[in-house]
Design a protein that fits this description.
InterPro entries: Beta-sandwich_Sec23_24, Sec23/24_helical_dom, Sec23/24_helical_dom_sf, Sec23/24_trunk_dom, SEC23_SEC24_subfamily, Sec24-like_trunk_dom, vWFA_dom_sf. This is Protein transport protein Sec24b. It holds the Pfam family Sec23_trunk. The protein has three domains: 179 residues, von Willebrand factor, type A domain (Rossmann fold, 3-Layer(aba) Sandwich), CATH 3.40.50; 86 residues, beta-sandwich domain of Sec23/24 (Immunoglobulin-like); 53 residues, no CATH class. It is α+β, with helices and mostly antiparallel strands. The protein is globular and about 75 Å long. The strands form four sheets. It has a five-stranded antiparallel β-sheet. The chain has nine helices and 13 strands. Strand 9 and strand 10 form a beta hairpin. Helix 2 runs parallel beside helix 3 and helix 8 packs antiparallel against helix 9.
Length: 338
């Protein structure tokens, strides 16, 4: 467990202690690990200490007047702690990081909200979080982000830490534990699912397809190693990926088009496993058959992903036009052929 404000606090949970010990590192510009063998512990051995810590945490900082947030240094410390083992980091963040590496400033101008200039805010303000995520991915560490903020939090910058380490992002805008019971309930449900769902570690995934088809442009949270190998530090049953497929050659001679996704991962019990999904679709010569078998939700999801990519790389109006054009193409070919 790490907590942080303008300093980073570690907790010694070594078996045999009567209560958790708090170790404070105030040098956030060059964060270091105060003790190497007692901060990452086996839950079975230290269960009582962990319970003690979780019970006392809510009151520990209730009188604090500290308003700063050194998220970057805390993440660097978590990376150093977990590098030897890999695993999963769960980050709970309530405001803009204001100190140390990765600190951010509010980029939002209330007068500019409806203008077309807002696009630069859709991209990250710093590459710190992306670089850190790539380091984490290399050590098989996934970072999951719970953003519980009541004001502007620059999700565009913070999201990079999960995007490139194959983590998940849970966002609760205008979160308040008293005034917004719906968001509180959502957090409780999400957190319960998050802590109880299955998890795979050190995963890689590759998607293959029939000759004549080619797969390009992947969407989701991962890092692409080589051209088509998705590196997933963590993978879970809720992970979702979208890919674009092009028809390169005529499929007239084949009756089936096949796709195969192979996922190699380590289970939570430490077993190395491979999970293979194969999908065979008939090749048809009537366009009406294609429309009859289309998966509306999958298409909508893919188009939304493509529009998001376009809005970040060029502009919102560009993405809007591209989305409208894609739908118009759908509908006009439906009208002409079906």
């Amino acid at each position: 467990f790490l907590t942080f404000d303008s300093t980073v606090h570690f907790y010694n949970l070594q078996e045999g202690l009567s209560q958790p010990q708090m170790l404070v590192v105030s040098d956030i510009d060059d964060v270091f690990i105060p003790s190497h063998d007692s901060l990452m512990v086996n839950l079975k051995e230290s269960r009582e200490l962990v319970k003690d810590l979780l019970t006392s945490l809510p009151a520990m900082f209730s009188q604090s007047r500290e308003t700063h947030s050194a998220l970057g240094p805390a993440l660097q410390a978590a990376f150093k702690l977990m590098s030897p083992t890999g695993g999963r980091v769960s980050v709970f963040q309530t405001q803009l990081p204001s100190l140390g590496a990765g600190k951010l400033q509010s980029r939002e101008d209330p007068n500019q909200r409806s203008s077309t200039k807002g696009v630069q805010h859709l991209g990250p303000a710093t590459d710190f979080y992306k670089k850190l995520a790539l380091d984490c991915s290399g050590q098989q560490i996934g970072v999951d982000l719970f953003l519980l903020s009541s004001q502007y939090a620059d999700l565009a910058s913070l999201a990079c830490v999960s995007k490139y380490s194959a983590g998940s992002i849970f966002y609760y805008p205008s979160f308040h534990h008293v005034h917004n019971p719906a968001q509180l309930q959502k957090l409780q449900k999400d957190l319960e699912r998050y802590l109880t769902r299955k998890i795979g570690f050190e995963a890689v995934m590759r998607i293959r397809c029939t000759k004549g088809l080619s797969i390009h442009t992947f969407h989701g949270n991962f890092f692409v190693r080589s051209t088509d190998l998705l590196s997933l530090a963590n993978v879970n049953p809720d992970s979702a990926f979208a890919v674009q497929v092009s028809i390169e050659d005529s499929l007239a001679d084949s009756s089936l088009a096949c796709f195969q996704a192979a996922l190699l991962y380590t289970s939570s019990k430490g077993k190395r496993r491979i999970r293979v999904h194969t999908l065979c679709l008939p090749v048809v010569n009537q366009l009406s058959d294609v429309y009859a078998g289309a998966d509306v939700q999958a298409i909508t999801c893919l188009l939304a992903n493509m529009a998001i990519d376009r809005s970040v790389s060029s502009s919102l109006s560009d993405a809007r036009d591209a989305l409208v054009n894609a739908v118009v193409d759908f509908v006009s070919s439906y009208k002409n052929n079906v």
